[in-house]
Amino acid sequence: MLPFTGSPASAFQTTLVADSVLSVPLQRAVRLEVILPPGYDSQSAPYPVLYLNDGQDLPRLRLQEIMDSLYQQDVIRPVVVVAIHAGDRIQEYGTAAQADYMKRGSKAGLYTDFVLTELLPHIQKQYAVSADAAQTAFAGFSLGGLSAFDIVWHHPDRFSRVGVFSGSFWWRSKAFSTAYNDYHDRIMHVLIRQTPAPALAGKKALQFWLQTGTDDETSDRNNNGVIDSIDDTLDIIHELEAKGYRKEQQIRYVEVQGGQHNQETWSAVMPGFLVWAFGR
After folding, report:
1. Which one, of 55, 60, 11, lies nearest residue 35 by Cα?
2. How large is the angle between the packed helices 263-278 and 63-73, nearest 10 degrees?
3. Per-residue pLDDT, 222
4. Residues in Cβ contact with 15 at an 8 Å cutoff, skipping those fewer than 6 apart
5. Residue 178 exposed, middle or buried by CB count within 10 Å (0-12, 13-18, 19+)
6. pTM over 0.90
7. Domain segments of the chain as ranges
8. What are all long-range contacts of 128-131, with beta carbons under 8 Å and residues at least 24 apart?
């Protein structure tokens, strides 16, 4: 993992642009912050692009500073980052096909519609970014990570890589009880498992970067000595492997010793994700 090395020279500094999209399905203005690479040229060949949920957390993530440092080290390609500020994240983030057992994620389908039919066209029109799935990634944190994973999994024609930081893969169709059944009740796991072979053929190019922290939480619902967030993520990896994906080649798993469920931990591992997704 590459460290953040501090203040870069001005020649390596990114530019932050404020933007917004008035969304019909979400019925609100969605605030955006767009990070342009050093020397950005609107007339150049299209840049790779990263879409990022929970864009309101950019200051705590120190993302712009981190990218400046990585450009100074010359370890990532020039990339445009589109940070999407959350609205009603408990309802807009989740799995588009199904809300959880408490009806959270009821607008996840509308959020996916916004991303595909409003956000991507807007960004591709206003900025010199690629529309090629091979040059497009999506990432998110916690529930925003689940949202990013769900969108990428179901739309491999638009995205090829996903980054999930402490993802909410516990998302369930039934409430936890002593008679819980993780195999049947965790929604994203089931969605992967039930993907038919014809649909899977179009997903073979997908790549996954999945991170957890050993202090993400304390819950251990099956009493196996492993916290739930790690168990849930490892089980996602098992589902992906059952579909033919291979670790290191297509799946990168990062487990942070002492890592917590917060922006400081995610900021610390961000350089590794960016090099994985956009390294030279």
Report:
1. 55
2. 40
3. 86
4. 35, 36, 40
5. exposed
6. yes
7. 10-278
8. 128/40, 128/41, 128/42, 128/43, 128/44, 128/45, 128/46, 128/47, 128/80, 129/46, 129/47, 129/48, 129/49, 129/80, 130/46, 130/47, 130/48, 130/49, 131/46
User: Would you say 148 and 163 are in contact if contact means Cβ atoms under 8 Å apart?
Assistant: yes
- The Cα 276–Cα 210 span in angstroms is 11
Q: According to the model, what pLDDT value does residue 179 have?
A: 59
C-alpha to C-alpha distance for 42 and 268, rounded to whole angstroms: 31
Q: Which residue type does 182 have?
A: D
| Cβ–Cβ < 8 Å for 8, 71 | yes
Task: Quickly count helices (H) and strands (E) in the chain.
Answer: 11, 8
Question: What b-and-e string marks burial along 199-218, b requiring 16 or more CB atoms within 10 Å of the CB?
Answer: eeeebeebbbbbbbbebbbe
Four-residue CA torsion sign, 272, 66, 88, 175? positive
DSSP string, 145-163: HHHHHHHHHH-TTT-SEEE
Show the DSSP H helices in 186-262 as ranges.
Answer: 187-193, 197-201, 228-242
Q: Which helix (H) or strand (E) covers residue 226, if one does?
A: none
Cβ atoms of 236 and 253 within 8 Å: the answer is no
Pair of tokens at residue 107: 């607008």
Q: Flag residues of the chain having pLDDT under 70.
A: 1-10, 178-180
CATH superfamily, domain 10-278, is: Alpha/Beta hydrolase fold, catalytic domain (3.40.50.1820)
Give the 3-state secondary structure of 2-41.
CCCCCCCCHHHCCEEEEEEEEECCCCEEEEEEEEECCCCC
